[in-house]
Amino acid sequence: MITRNLIACGLLLASASWAAVAQAEQGCPDGQAPIGRQPGPICVPQPGYGVGGPSPIQQQPNVRQPRWLDRWGAIAIDGVAQKMGTAADKSSSRDAKNAALKDCQTRGGSAQECKKTLLVYRNGCAAVALGADFVATSSAGSIEEASERAQKDCNANSTNCEVLYTPCSFAVLVD
């Protein structure tokens, strides 16, 4: 008789605990919560649980983004002496500018004239187009685009234009 009473008490306690769980859950699957009143509550997604972002269980892995270093280039032209100085793959615009001006002067250009036509560019390409009486420079993301721009500018201001120089200085992946 005692065994029978113990079994009955155990079943009663087990069913009471299952009823409490069922009451709290109200039949909604994981990631959803009940709203509304009995007899017909409905289940709706819990904010932040798999809708519009990762669920607490599915955290996104920590992915490292690549790191890039800018690279600069410059072109300095003395139109009077017809001398050109260049610099590429420099770590700053100042370094590129100073190197191109120095190169222009080293090749026979004057400091004042080399500064008049000065193009500094970053993470891309440049182009120099020379016409009968005009020099055009341009920069862009590719040689083709920079050349097209320089050619167009030269053609608008002179005749017999030709793209003569197209350097590039692209960003460098460090990790």
Walk me through what this model shows:
With 175 residues, the protein is an alpha+beta fold. It has a domain at 68-173. The protein is built from four helices and eleven strands; from the N terminus they run αβββββααβββαβββ. The chain has helices at 2-25, 93-106, 111-116, 143-157; strands at residues 32-35, 42-45, 68-69, 72-78, 83-90, 117-122, 124-130, 135-140, 162-165, 168-169, 172-173. The strands form four sheets. Strands 7, 8, 9 and 10 form a four-stranded antiparallel beta sheet that branches. It has a three-stranded antiparallel beta sheet with strand order 5-4-6. A two-stranded antiparallel ribbon has the order 1-2. β1 and β2 (42-45) form a beta hairpin. The termini are far apart. Residues 5-24 have low confidence and may be disordered.
What are its keywords?
alpha+beta, 175 residues
Helix and strand element order:
HEEEEEHHEEEHEEE
Number of strands: 11
Over all CA atoms, what is the radius of gyration? 36 Å
Euclidean distance between termini CA atoms: 76 Å
Low-confidence stretches: 5-24
> What general form does the structure show?
elongated
Helix content: 25-40%
Strand and helix layout:
Elements: H1 2-25, E1 32-35, E2 42-45, E3 68-69, E4 72-78, E5 83-90, H2 93-106, H3 111-116, E6 117-122, E7 124-130, E8 135-140, H4 143-157, E9 162-165, E10 168-169, E11 172-173
Short description:
This protein is an alpha+beta fold and 175 residues long. 34% of the residues lie in helices and 30% in strands.
